[in-house]
Amino acid sequence: xxxxPAIDLLGGRCVRLVQGRYDRVLQYEGDPLEVAESFRRxxxxxxxxxxxxxxxxxxxxxxxxxxxxxxxxMKIEFGGGVRDExxxxxxxxxxxxxxxxxxxxxxxxxxxxxLVHMAAYMDKVVLGLDAKLGKLSIRGWQEDTQRGVIDxxxxxxxxxxxxxxxxxxxxxxMLLGPNIESIRAVSEATSVPIVAVGGVTDLEDVRxxxxxxxxxxxxxxxxYEETIDLVEALxxxxxxxxxx
Length: 244
Description:
Blueprint: E1 2-10, E2 13-18, E3 21-27, H1 32-41, E4 46-51, H2 52-57, H3 63-70, E5 75-79, H4 85-93, E6 98-101, H5 103-107, H6 109-116, E7 125-132, E8 135-138, E9 143-148, H7 149-155, E10 163-168, H8 180-188, E11 194-197, H9 203-209, E12 216-219, H10 221-224, H11 230-239
Parallel strand pairs: 1-4, 1-12, 4-5, 5-6, 6-7, 7-10, 10-11, 11-12
Antiparallel strand pairs: 1-2, 2-3, 7-8, 8-9
């Protein structure tokens, strides 16, 4: 299981939103590249980078920062404002390893299905599923839908997606611990690898999540506020890959 430290970009700076709310922004010091380098020095090989400006406004706004982050040599999962094929390609060209598509996927399912099965994008596209109480939200979590996260996870079970990035909005940025039961339910509904986002606070959370057969977990605020040691989190997560 991989640990993906989070870098959320708003106005070119590292921030965290509490429960996805743009009126509850936690500012963190440090240039994004310096922050990424600090993660790399501690052993991380992946970054989870979200363009919050792009997610809110519907178009990627931080490509230049993505290019800078790619200079670290780390693998990057990138999302926020990715609403068409041109945006996906732009993110890949800027250095993203895989690209998250959420809003457009749910709004135009036929387009998304065709895209995922194109040779150029097989295993490079991530389906972003962001949910409140099991129901999906779109447009940077500003608009709720009545579509169920389990139904969508099940529907893409055999698609050539890189991963599903599943975010529990109610836990994101709250330091309340992950919603283990909802993460388990999503992971059991599909054969697509799951990256879980939201609520990871301490090493015990990492240990619990490592029992769920996940591809990865995203940790943000807990690293920035030092309630979790990234080196130790990586050690615990990678231990889950060892043969039993």
